[in-house]
Design a protein that fits this description.
By secondary structure, the chain is mainly beta. The chain has two helices and 29 strands. A five-stranded antiparallel sheet has the order 1-26-25-24-23, with no helix packed on it. Strands 2-29-28-27 form a four-stranded antiparallel sheet. It has a four-stranded antiparallel sheet with strand order 3-4-5-6, with no helix packed on it.
């Protein structure tokens, strides 16, 4: 059956009458030049004996928005979630706060914040959460919760109070190391060996989602919507579950096979799942048929992260590059080619995208040297960085108004978006 595309249009409001209309074209009659000089003796006079108000300025032309990349999953939901989160973040204590001037000081060294680990325009460091003994593999703030969850290779999940920044609970994981951790609505999902553990933060209900082999580590998790959960494993399989909202459980749907090495990154587009592997390839899966419909020889090394934006796919790799893919002209949407290659000069271990406090799109690029760079999109202009204690394989931007990083030392850092201030000249 042919697909008919219909362009949506909005009805125009009826034209409103203007005050002071004077005949055709709405042009008033000219002012009497004799009246201007004070000696008009015509009565009546067909010209005006009054000054005409200057014409109103022309309506400003509609400013066309640039063709920037917009990540739908990062757009804040209505309801003031961004303001609520910002109020819950623990403030970073600075001894010199009382002595700070009312106006923002001139940026020094590129806008370096006190403490030196958060440098740039439009964001500031808020807190450093220490407690994990090994690398952090996931950070998530569940919907409706004031608790931040973090998972680590030390075999624990820590729960942090967003009001105080204190760790309020440490949950040891029976299976050992935590390979990945994400949230899906009120659920916290933890990838471990042989399973995905699920905790409902509202009811306390716990589930164990089976699928992977007992000794196989879950290396990647993805929950972009309220319906599907995906898990990539070290044996190259992607498992898919569907959320049953009525029964509050997850039903296993499929196991997608084809990768020869571990699946280390996942991204979801419109009707398509993308999986990145340690062998440098990216596979595209149709979510309806659950079949691989495209394979890309994407990178020379492991594909560490994938990100779907409006009409493009971004991929990062240990080969020190970030690639932007888009559909070939006049070809199928899944016939992708490289549109742009960004050379970072250092291993790229993670990427993610969001909007800043001014609603501008930004890309976060986490490097192997512990630096997370912040780039404007689509220009890729460097606007600052976050310095972590070792490489940060976890960069979470799914909470409006905040950035969470988890690094190799076991530390979680919290960064808050602020209105951007241009540097003084």
């Amino acid at each position: 059956m042919a697909v008919v595309q219909q362009r949506l249009s909005f009805p125009l409001a009826p034209a409103q009458p203007r005050r002071g209309n004077h005949g055709p074209g709405n042009m008033p009659p000219p002012v009497c030049r004799f009246w201007k000089y004070g000696h008009c003796n015509r009565n009546p006079c067909r010209f005006l004996h009054a000054d005409v108000a200057p014409p109103p300025p022309p309506a400003a032309a509609a400013v066309k928005k640039p063709n920037t990349w917009v990540n739908p999953s990062s757009v804040p939901k209505p309801g003031g979630g961004e303001a609520k989160l910002a109020s819950r973040l623990p403030p970073m204590k600075r001894p010199q706060d009382d002595a700070r001037p009312a106006s923002p000081p001139k940026r020094l060294g590129g806008g370096q914040e006190p403490g030196g680990w958060c440098v740039g325009d439009g964001f500031c460091g808020v807190a450093q959460l220490k407690g994990h003994a090994k690398a952090v593999t996931g950070v998530a703030l569940p919907e409706g919760s004031d608790k931040l969850f973090s998972g680590s290779l030390d075999g624990t999940v820590r729960v942090w109070d967003c009001n105080t920044g204190q760790c309020v609970h440490v949950a040891p994981i029976q299976e050992g190391e935590v390979g990945s951790l994400v949230s899906m609505g009120p659920w916290v999902l933890v990838g471990v060996r042989g399973a995905v553990r699920a905790l409902h933060t509202g009811t306390g209900k716990e589930l164990r989602l089976r699928g992977p082999a007992a000794a196989t580590m879950v290396t990647a998790l993805l929950a972009e919507d309220d319906e599907h959960l995906f898990a990539g494993t070290e044996d190259g399989v992607v498992y898919m579950w569907r959320m049953d909202q009525g029964r509050h459980c997850f039903d296993e749907v499929a196991a997608l096979t084809g990768h020869e090495k571990a699946v280390v990154s996942l991204a979801q587009g419109k009707g398509t799942l993308y999986s990145g592997s340690a062998d440098g390839s990216v596979r595209a899966w149709d979510l309806e048929s659950r079949r691989c419909i495209c394979t890309l020889a994407a990178h020379a090394s492991s594909v560490t992260a994938l990100l779907c934006w409006e009409q493009v796919l971004l991929s990062s790799s240990d080969d020190a590059s970030v690639k932007v893919w888009r559909a070939k002209p006049d070809r199928d949407d899944l016939d992708l080619e490289v549109h742009y290659v960004h050379a970072e000069g250092e291993r790229v271990v993670a990427i993610d995208g969001t909007h800043d406090a001014d609603k501008k799109p930004v890309l976060m690029v986490s490097r192997g040297d512990g630096i997370v760079r912040v780039y404007d999109l689509p220009s890729m202009k460097n606007r600052g960085h976050i310095r972590c204690n070792g490489e940060a394989r976890t960069v979470s931007l799914r909470s409006p108004g905040a950035v969470f990083t988890g690094d190799a030392s076991g530390e979680v850092r919290v960064v808050k978006w602020t209105p951007r201030v241009e540097a003084e000249v």
